[in-house]
Amino acid sequence: MVRTWLAIATAEFQVLTSSLRRNRKLFTGILYALALVWAVVVTPMIYNAVLTAIFPMHVLRPMLLVIFPGLMRTVGLFLWLILLLFPMSMALQEIKIGQWEIFLSNNVRTRDIMVGTFLGKIGLYGLVIVFLAPLLIAPFMLAFEVSVIGQLLVYGVVTMLAMGTIWLSNFLTSLVQARLGESSRGNDIAKAVAMVIAIVVIIPMYGLMFFLPTLSEMMGMNAFLILPSTWFSDLISWIAITFNGIGLTSWQILGFSTVLQLDILVTSVLVSGFVLGTVGLALGAADRVFTIEAGVRTEVVTTIGRENVILRGIRNVSTGPFGSLMVTNIKDFVRKAQNLSKIGYGLILAIIMPIIMMAMDIEFLQFSEMFMMLIVMMSLIGAMPFAGTGFLESKDQLWIIQSAPSGASRFVKSRIASQAMISIVLAVIPSVILYFMMSLTVFEFATLLGLGYVAVVGGMLMATGVTARNPNYEDTKSPAHQANVMMSVMIAEFSIIGVMFADIFLTIGTGIDFFGMIESIFGPGNMMFGVSVIGLVVQWVIAGVLVWSGIRYLSKPDA
To answer: Is the whole-model pTM more than 0.70?
Structure first.
């Protein structure tokens, strides 16, 4: 009798490698061989060359001896969060309750599903680990001249960290999917949760980029011993110390032990306990996580309440079909948790960089110097929520729109009008936050709010035009959706930044000081302000062309 989990694992692997078809085993072997060469030969050579050119090892080694345990804990925490939350975020992008129900209706146990799907993807996970782990570990191995046995043990610990954490992530994902699958809005809520998880991952990444010494000092505190990532990081530190080739003195090892607190034996027990505990917990609770039963997901109750003041005001101002379209568009957008989470994601990205720069206590940090960056981030806020989603639900809806006189034009214009109203909120929130955090003057706040709103609307227009040219019909997994999001964000940002690069190239190529000309027009010290204004003009011209092109495309019968 074929083991059920093995059949599921085989099917999962075949789905992941479907593009390889008959040559999947050959190509998989080649990829793993390249990954092994990358980890053992290429990465150490690259790091050795770069570190020798920038920071010679005799200069870098004393620095690492001071911050090594805390630095390793910081890297371990970042890696642990990525491994725990990223697979969960990707899985929640689309809840597939139907597949689970098909399995369970054929007497397949939940634990078989979990084990099979995990083992089916373990090849991909392992490949990613082999490529990424050396990037994080190789500098420490070079600095401490860790022996081959020590390096093998370190990569073994990294593998345990990765596999145990991914297994825990799969279990938590199954738990969340099972609960959200019982809701009529479960899929939408899951996508919103996926965006929130992405935000949680981004914040430590920025901290790792800008506050590495501070984080390393913080992670050396005993309070972080409760985190599983700390146990794995400390075990790696002990292995590097034990198998070092630089001749660490007993006093240096004693200094490390005062930070690490727990010895190598206790740390090994905690690491093994975490892995075995997560596996046992998931297998023991698997069959209780998901059950087939007639619940609330089979019952849809629709309630209609009175429209709020804003929606009633829109109907009073525009009494015809255009006003009705605007109200419908606003309702459709704000009632989806996924769209609201995308707004939150964009807002955090917009304000986190100024906050980080303020926290770094940069002496030349002034509003005029940061203005262009703020405008670019405002444009990002406008592009992200409206790119790819909340536009057209199906081909049938498009055909209905095309059947009306000037239907495509009126539909797109009504969406732009409704999204422009939503954009007011998107411009006000970061402007108010930055007003208080940066102690802006009233004039600076008014300038940021006004031009920020122009940037938000410009990004929204670009997203609308791009999506109209390539509608993905609410399929967030389709290549069309991914292309729409990437194109909208890139065009919205680079249409503004591109002006600055164009000025630089023109100044170098022609010898004419275009930056000086801009500053003479907008006043001394307002060069970045002037570049931002010109960038917004360019952005709106491009956005207008994209919207016009999108309307023409939607008007075609074969669109």
So the answer is: no
